[in-house]
Every structure is written in C-alpha cells, then in structure tokens.
Write a structure and sequence with these properties.
This protein is an alpha+beta fold and 142 residues long. 18% of the residues lie in helices and 38% in strands.
C-alpha cells in the first residue's frame, strides 16, 4: 500500500531511493535476476540508503552501482517521498528524475540485473514490474 502522507503507526525499517532516468521520451528499466528480491521483475535504478547517507548521495551511488553512469547530484531532480507498507513492513520511498541529453552506454551490475531497456512509461506498465512501480509511474507521469 502506498501513501502520500505518513499514515498512523508507520514504522519504516529503511529508506529506498529510485530514479527515472529519461532520454527521448523513454525511461531506463533494469531486469532483476531471478535469485534477487522481486526476481524476474523490471524496476528503476534504485536501492536502500546507507547509514548517514543523504537521499541525493544514495541515488548518485545507486545509479553508479547499477548502471555505471556518473550523474552529478545537481542534475537530479527530487520528485516525491512516499510511505509504503509492503507485506507487513514499512519503508520510505524517495523518487528522483534526470533528463539525459544523449543516450548513454549502460553497464549493468551483473550481480543484480540481467538486462536493461529504454521504454516509454506507458508501455512500461505492461511489463512485469516490481511491486507498486506501476502506481509510481502513473503518479510521476500523470
């Protein structure tokens, strides 16, 4: 369940950062390995924030780790913070975006992902997405 405002009795275990990397009207999605959490599903470059790390520091690190791209923090636009209850635990979900002027070479982290693709947000909704990403895409693009 996704909330725009913090619900009562919300106790987050961790915080997640994610980023809509956009080029030419398409977003970058990463295909998770089967043995990972939510394996076989498509998701954005994303991950857990580390202790003493800001949201911006975390997303810059995650983008680099998962795609090989070095995107300066000043090129990232903070979009929203959501409160998520996922199968019995709570977490905070931060969304960023970055418009890329050219289509970059992506070097996925083979430990976490098996493939990537650039896809229009509306078409992405037909993929096997990680839980609640369809709702987040609709929120971001509508």
């Amino acid at each position: 369940m996704i909330y725009r405002t913090e619900p009562e009795n919300f106790h987050p275990r961790f915080q997640i950062v994610s980023c809509y990397l956009e080029h030419g009207g398409e977003i970058l999605l990463l295909h998770r390995h089967e043995n990972k959490s939510q394996g076989g599903k498509w998701g954005l470059p994303a991950g857990k924030m580390e202790k003493d790390e800001s949201e911006q520091e975390a997303i810059v690190r995650e983008i680099k780790e998962e795609t090989g791209l070095s995107i300066p923090a000043e090129h990232l636009k903070y979009f929203n913070k959501l409160y998520v209850n996922h199968t019995g635990y709570d977490f905070i979900y931060h969304m960023f975006s970055a418009k890329l002027p050219t289509c970059p070479a992506i070097a996925i982290n083979n430990y976490e992902h098996q493939a990537y693709q650039w896809i229009a947000p509306q078409k992405a909704l037909s993929l096997n997405l990680i839980d609640d990403l369809d709702t987040c895409i609709k929120l971001f693009y509508h």
